[in-house]
Write a structure and sequence with these properties.
Blueprint (H helix, E strand, L loop, with lengths): L1 H18 L4 H36 L1 H10 L4 H14 L6 H25 L17 H16 L15 H11 L3 H27 L3
Helix pairs in contact: 1-2, 1-5, 2-5, 2-8, 3-4, 6-7, 6-8
């Protein structure tokens, strides 16, 4: 079943390349954009729910601190008290929407990744990249830049907590893109561009919500 799924994505990638003047680079970007845009309503909804949950938790911080002090010697009672407080204020665990999004997104992303990796040897060149089967430094820097822009536009990351640790994903994205085939880097670039769009849309949505 998995092999058929990956082969289907490979066939789609080849067809896209045929339509785009045999440009596998454009085909990879188009596929990445199509996959992420198709999932955008789901991922945007999950991100919005996460932001709302984060805001509710911020308002409950004094109460959570009091519960922590009151049940410092009884972890079970502490956990029960927290769950009771969450239910009282209508705060869900946040796992359901996140798991549903992951269950849809992970197999699709893994399938696209496998299909690109499977056909990357025959992809040729694209723009300044001489061979899509090899890593490219400038593409890795571009992937990292898009990752950084996405983080800057993420309203769930307040200015006061933007430490070096929060920029670790940017460094990781650069290192990964620098050590894999450029064809995969192009996929991450296209996918990351939709993440930037998602965070911009999320910023607009949360600004319209009552304070």
């Amino acid at each position: 079943m998995w092999t058929m799924f990956v082969d289907g994505i490979s066939a789609l990638l080849n067809q896209l390349a045929t339509w785009m003047d045999s440009s596998y680079g454009l085909a990879v970007i188009a596929l990445a954009l199509a996959v992420r845009l198709a999932m955008l309503p789901m991922t945007l909804h999950a991100a919005e729910q996460g932001w709302l949950r984060q805001r509710k938790l911020a308002t409950l911080k004094p109460q959570l601190e009091r519960l922590r002090e009151r049940h410092a010697k009884d972890p079970a009672a502490h956990a029960a008290a927290i769950q009771s407080l969450y239910r009282e204020h209508g705060i869900a665990s946040g796992l359901c929407s996140g798991m549903l999004t992951a269950l849809v997104q992970a197999p699709m992303s893994a399938g696209v990744y496998a299909a690109i990796r499977q056909g990357v040897a025959s992809m040729g060149s694209f723009l300044w990249i001489p061979k899509l089967a090899r890593p490219d430094l400038w593409l890795a820097l571009l992937v990292a830049a898009v990752s950084m822009i996405a983080m800057l536009f993420n309203p769930m990351l307040p200015e006061q907590v933007r430490t070096l640790l929060h920029w670790l994903p940017v460094v990781i994205s650069f290192l990964m893109a620098w050590h894999v085939a450029a064809g995969l880097g192009l996929y991450w670039l296209g996918s990351g561009s939709v993440t930037v769009l998602q965070n911009l849309l999320l910023r607009q949505r949360v600004r319209r919500l009552p304070a």
